[in-house]
Automatic annotation (TrEMBL):
Listed InterPro entries: DHFR-like_dom_sf (IPR024072), RibDG_C (IPR002734), Riboflavin_Biosynth_HTPR (IPR050765)
Alphabetically ordered keywords of this record: NADP, Oxidoreductase
Domain spans labelled Bacterial bifunctional deaminase-reductase C-terminal: 15-218
Signal sequence bounds: none
Name recorded for this polypeptide: Bacterial bifunctional deaminase-reductase C-terminal domain-containing protein
Superkingdom classification of source: Bacteria
Gene Ontology terms: biological process: riboflavin biosynthetic process
Biological pathway: Cofactor biosynthesis; riboflavin biosynthesis
Molecular function per GO: 5-amino-6-(5-phosphoribosylamino)uracil reductase activity
Species whose genome carries this gene: Parathermosynechococcus lividus PCC 6715
A Pfam family annotated for this UniProt entry: RibD_C
Amino acid sequence: MSRETTSPQRPQTTAILAVSLDGKLASASAQGDRIASAYDFQHLEEHVAQADAVLFGATTLRLGGTAMRLQSPSLIQQRLRAGKPPQPLQIVCSASGDLDLALPFFQQPIPRALVTTETGQARWQGSSAFDYCWCADRPHWDWSWVLGQIATVGIQRLAVLGGGHLFASLLQVQAIDELWLTVCPLMLGSSAPSLMPLKECTSPTMTLVSAVPVGDEVYLHYRLGYGEDKGTMIET
Ligand SMILES: NC(=O)c1ccc[n+]([C@@H]2O[C@H](COP(=O)([O-])OP(=O)(O)OC[C@H]3O[C@@H](n4cnc5c(N)ncnc54)[C@H](OP(=O)(O)O)[C@@H]3O)[C@@H](O)[C@H]2O)c1
């Protein structure tokens, strides 16, 4: 496998999310619960298996308690056969760094990383909970620098698993290349967490690659474009 790179280098990023028909990510009353089917879980696990690292927001972690660790023996075997580690690097994004060490996440047998601020980093000084810690405030939050750092530790494919604040902020800096959206047959109402929590946003161009109905859900795959080369890694 050869790899062509352009500068500035960042991983290929794919967001994989499930939304209700009214664009919500979870129910307002059970925000840590999944809204999609068991089939969607399998679909998500297959994407995670293809990734070198997974990125998710602190609220998603606080509510769910765990990272999306691969459990399928065949997917783990496939990774090992391809010379990859059994589990992708699990990267949590938390500006505050305020994460409870009692969360099951910290007991999971996975490699962990933190994207945070200087203040957040200070909370974890001397801790071995994270294999990597990147400070994004340089002095303002700088995704371009963070994604470059993630690339330097060998991450070519990054799966972005939400929630909405993390997804929106990456979309705004043109750092989402592909989107897999599972549309679920639900209405969750305006107080539920949203796929796009920003009041205003600039939309990339979205090219539909596929739309596959499975039961009452639809699996949409879009390729995103921003009108210029954003310097992602390209594998050939
Ligand atoms: N349906 C799905 O596919 C799906 C997937 C994922 C999550 N969810 C649901 O979505 C909900 C959570 O989504 P959410 O939008 O409220 O939260 P989120 O994006 O998971 O996390 C937001 C937090 O992450 C950190 N963060 C994210 N982007 C940041 C940035 N650009 N700069 C600095 N810090 C940043 C901050 O952490 P600090 O507060 O620590 O500073 C922020 O408060 C939950 O209900 C979860 O279950 C659903």
